[in-house]
Amino acid sequence: MAAVTGQVGEPAVALDVDREDLDLLLLIRRFEETLLDLFAQGKLNGTTHTCLGQEYVPVALRPLLRDDDFVFSNHRGHGHYLARFGDPEGLLAEIMGREGAVCAGVGGSQHLYRDTYLSTGVQGESLPVAAGMALHMQRRGRGQLAAVFIGDGTWGEGAVYEALNMASLWRLPLLVVVEHNGIAQTTPTGLQMAGTVAGRAAAFGVRHVRVTSTDVAAIRAELAGPIADARRRPHPLVVEFETHRLGPHSKGDDTRDEAAVRRAREHDWRERYRGRFPLVFDAADRAQRERVAAAVREVEARPRSTWER
After folding, report:
1. How far is CA 171 from each of CA 26, 145, 146, 194, 206, rounded to the nearest angstrom?
2. Of 38, 212, 236, which Cα lies nearest the Cα of 147?
3. What are the distances in angstroms from CA 279 to CA 25, 219, 257, 283, 284?
4. pLDDT in tens, 67-87
5. What would the mean pLDDT of 21-39 be, rounded to a whole number?
6. What is the distance between the terminal CA atoms of the chain, rounded to a whole angstrom?
7. Contact 28, 83 (CB under 8 A)
């Protein structure tokens, strides 16, 4: 299969915002900010990797993924989970080790399993597993996809290329979502990755689409066709989001200089939506701020998980 490359950019005309999308975007933003606050207060243990600035990626993909698709997430996966399930209480309980946690408090921030969702902190590990799931789905013939989220740093793992090779050879319904935020932990991508994601996909004859927009509706409209096509006549698809990480790698390890952080904030979807739809935005922001605050109060009041006692 010949590789095909496309690009999704900012729309020429601002599209209307869907309140459900805006609520979800702001739920994820407020949840992630709250986690960093809770860590600063000494109320959480372990680690966490927030997706501040990247929230629009799983929100845009949410209606394009079916309930029977299998989603494989990564260490920076809170937004992926919330877009899939809309369950801040269960996720917070997992991170805090309280009753009602997604995985009884055993998985913490990075390692979650629920229904058709699995996340792991091991870089590249999900790609071959997702390829195996995609093979199973191809054989079932029900139009399902295996969708896997990876970052630009993960392209340094050999398992990525083994999985892409098999996916292309066997024409697997595998959706690889690349959140290319330009930095692998603390190393700029240009210092650790030669070539491009598009070039690497092309080497395996895999279709590639690059997304530079942060407009959820525009992204969804452009990706609906390629994703539907990957279901209809199974084949792998790489969708590369040129995105920006606003926060640190983990809780406080941000080695970027002020100029780099400022450039990232200039691409924040939040300010663009606020400027375009101020009244709707402010109402949604208040509602989600209150929702997350209520979730914190409710989860903090729960007993510790039996695994934590």
Report:
1. 37, 12, 12, 26, 9
2. 236
3. 16, 23, 34, 6, 9
4. 999 999 999 999 999 999 999
5. 96
6. 54
7. yes
In DSSP terms, 208 is beta-bridged to 5, 238
48 is written with which tokens?
């966490």
Q: How far apart are CA 76 and CA 241, in angstroms?
A: 15
Domains and CATH numbers, the chain: 5-9+17-300 (3.40.50.970)
- Print burial letters for 19-46: b (CB count within 10 Å at least 16), e (below 16): eebbbbbbbbbbbbebbbebbeeeebee
The helix/strand/coil state of 211 is: strand
Helix (H, G, I), strand (E, B) or coil at 18: coil
Question: Residue 164: helix, strand or coil by DSSP?
Answer: helix
Q: Between the CA of residue 12 and those of 16, 56, 62, 92, 276, what are the distances in Å?
A: 13, 19, 23, 39, 14
Instruction: Give the model's confidence band at 309: pLDDT under 50 very low, under 70 low, under 90 confident, else very high.
Output: low
Any residues with CB less than 8 A from the CB of 273 and at least 6 apart, and which? Answer: 17, 22, 25, 281
Contact between 216 and 278 (Cβ < 8 Å)? no
For 183-234, the pLDDT digits (tens) are 776 777 777 888 999 999 999 999 999 999 999 999 999 999 999 999 999 9
- CA distances in angstroms from 9 to 114, 193, 252, 276, listed in the order given: 33, 24, 32, 17
What's the CA gap between 304 and 131, in Å, rounded?
Answer: 37
- Least confident range from 152-161, 216-225, 261-270, 295-304: namely 261-270
Helices and strands counted in the chain (H then E):
11, 10
Which DSSP state fits 110?
Answer: T
